[in-house]
């Protein structure tokens, strides 16, 4: 009996060791098979596209040939006909009958032109096109994208997932769509921004709900410490535009993004954030807000594709067909240039995976695949080389073309529409279109020297590294912005307003007073305040994690049980 038991244990252990050692091999083989089927699908789609191209060229040639023959015959017949019809001296064009088929093409009368035009389907510009035209002409216009959250058209505009079941069918569908989009892009190269959108909207492009974020007198104060980390911020982030937040280190850029995303912890927030003009909590839209923090959000033990697919399956609408989810993931892989490493493990500290730059792109991709309406990114290009950051910014630009509102902290000044300059203390020094930033600073006497990048120069001034010329001091810049926009100036900053007024009248410059008085506290008082702020921070965290807010995003994501199933079935397509 004992011998049998021991034998059974040994057999089971051997089996387990065998399974453990073979599991890697099984997974590798499975990955290889998947890669093969993907390559086959891509090849098939490419061949179809090439065949279609060849067919189009042949059709054009045939058409030209037919046109030549048609013209020749037309000339012959029209000579005979005109000789016959000359005596009748038909001044105006007679009605064309069946026998006139071979008549040479004649200039159509205006009536005919009109009727011909009326036969062409009348392509009225869509709402999105109209809006983008107006946005191009007036970037400050309050007219946003017209599609609102809760719009019933959103579902209608979704691409039909078709009844695709097998992996190769789904992949062929995804690659086919991507090839189509590439061809469209190639065609649209010379079009303007609104031209591209109008082409896109006339096709079968899905439109996302839009989020416009306006903030008024937004102030964040550290609980217990009464220190402002963000102060009196006014402005608006528009859908379809890329906004960059810039400023010196410690100015409060990350804090600003966290406040926008509803993730600011340990702070008391005053002022208001309006979503699409309504005073609603940003938490109600969490399902359609993407947030890429500075730290990694990727799973090191999954491959690039698995990470993206897992995020898409858990965060896209549960009603969306699987092929459409695959298409979205493929599109993101393509636009972030991750094709070459799609099957590579992301990696952990112990196990080396993809490079740091690729990892950063996967982080961004994790949020792009959930098709956000508001995408917030904290330094997405940090650590990337120039080519990779250009690629990433281009991918984000394409997202903006779909109406996504993008706001990110950037250090490299390029490829964005609006800019927010934060000065130390979380105060705004400028917020508006990038085109007008130089004009604004020149208006207050700050000119950019030759061969210096304007945003770099302004950040150096805000940091206090470069002294601005004239009577301006870097501490005055936020108050100058408040006065420029007639925003109320906080009482403890009024002396800056007085300095500015005095400087403009007498050209004198008083030494700046300290912005905030430092209150000396006893050890016991400091200890008590620290304790209080720690408890409040914990309470904030628990509230944010466990308290449910009303969802207004109009997206029904899979429940926890289903997400867990996706997690367990990570190798499933
Ligand atoms: N919850 C918090 N608790 C304590 N201090 C905080 C908190 N949030 C923000 N701060 C402080 O606010 C200031 C601004 O921080 P933030 O991370 O927003 O700066 P930043 O502009 O993003 O800087 P960097 O460019 O260096 O990342 C810092 O001094 C930071 O210590």
From TrEMBL:
Q: Which GO terms describe its cellular component?
A: membrane
Biased composition, class Polar residues, residue ranges: 120-136
Task: State its location(s).
Answer: Membrane
Which residues does the UniProt record annotate as the domain ABC transporter?
213-449
* Organism superkingdom: Eukaryota
Q: State if Transport is listed as a keyword.
A: yes
Q: Where is the composition biased (Low complexity)?
A: 108-119
Instruction: Name where it mostly resides.
Output: membrane
Cite a single Pfam family from the UniProt record: ABC_tran
Bilayer topology: Multi-pass membrane protein
Record region (Disordered): 76-142
Recorded GO molecular functions are: ABC-type transporter activity; ATP binding; ATP hydrolysis activity
Q: Signal peptide position in this chain?
A: none
Which terms are listed as keywords in the entry?
ATP-binding, Membrane, Nucleotide-binding, Transmembrane, Transmembrane helix, Transport
Instruction: Spell out the family assignment given in the record's similarity comment.
Output: Belongs to the ABC transporter superfamily. ABCG family. Eye pigment precursor importer (TC 3.A.1.204) subfamily.
The protein's name in its UniProt record: ABC transporter domain-containing protein
Supply the source organism's classification.
Eukaryota, Viridiplantae, Streptophyta, Embryophyta, Tracheophyta
